[in-house]
Amino acid sequence: MAALTYLIYYCVAILLASVFGGMIPKWWNLTHRWMEIAVSFVAGIIFGVAMLHMLPHAILSALQSSAQSPHATLLGLMVWFVLGFLAMFLIERFFCFHHHEAPADHSFDPPHEHHHDLEHDHEHGCSHQPHSDHVHDITWSGAAVGLTLHSVLAGVALAASVMHGHGGGTLPGLGTFLVIVLHKPFDAMTIATLMGRSGWSVAAQSMVNALFSLAIPLGAGLFLLGVSPDVGPVWFALPAALAFSSGVFLCIAGSDLLPELQFHHHDRWKLSAALILGLGVAYLAGRFEGHTHNLPLPNTPAATKAES
């Protein structure tokens, strides 16, 4: 099956997941505990895909195709990795969107009082400064913009993963697809919940969520345009795109896991088990993807033998 066909199937499934996520607040009253467990599980998959799939594949692809020295090649890839992490970090810092709580949780409500306490700050906002009376409330428009930018980057990651694996993979891009299709409902639910608390109608929520669901195909399309034959060979762009995407995914995973580590002392065993289970799913997804790197690395005995 052609890589583009896989990408279309993945995008359709992600669109459906986004629509489903936007309807969750209307169908179920999720509890804080189950939401945290689900977030830990998905964050484990994100972390595993970033570090066990994207970054290793980026390194191997770059070493096999680059004419530079291995040191220069690796340094260039790590620059792209840092840029991906920084891009996601700045999106979260300035748009303050990555906030996954149960729809009934009070953390979406405007705070009525302010105490100089770290745990209280964490519960009632997304970027409070301790020992300050300033409150940074979450708005649905800010969340929508931030999540849209995040989704465009995720679309780039999906297209890069599929294009990388199409040469010999059984299910190219499966790990990245799982990350996005499982994380997308949380994002859509965030927007729908915030809009509902701001008094917007169900029709308005559905319209915004429908537009938001198109961000993944938009990112994938932008990547495909950037690596079209008219622009340049796809393998020149793939290692950098994979390294950049792994940095993006690492930042997303950290955003979900680190607050839990510092502020959620309850259910530590369950949350830890969910994280480990997510890592296991990421590892197994890599086995199902099935693509390999058969070209010998430069400056290795295998490469020397191949050249002779």
Automatic annotation (TrEMBL):
Q: Does Nucleotide-binding show up as a keyword for this record?
A: no
Q: Which residues cross the membrane?
A: 6-25, 37-60, 72-91, 138-162, 174-195, 207-228, 234-257, 269-286
Broad class of the protein's primary localization: membrane
Single GO molecular function: zinc ion transmembrane transporter activity
- Provide the Gene Ontology terms for cellular component: membrane
Keywords of this entry: Membrane, Transmembrane, Transmembrane helix
- What top-level branch of life does the organism fall under? Bacteria
Cell compartments where the protein resides: Membrane
Supply the InterPro entries for this chain: ZIP (IPR003689)
Q: Where is this region: Disordered?
A: 108-130
The membrane topology term of the UniProt record is: Multi-pass membrane protein
Q: According to its UniProt record, what is one Pfam family this protein matches?
A: Zip
Q: What is this protein called?
A: Zinc transporter ZupT
Please give the organism. Answer: Aeoliella mucimassa
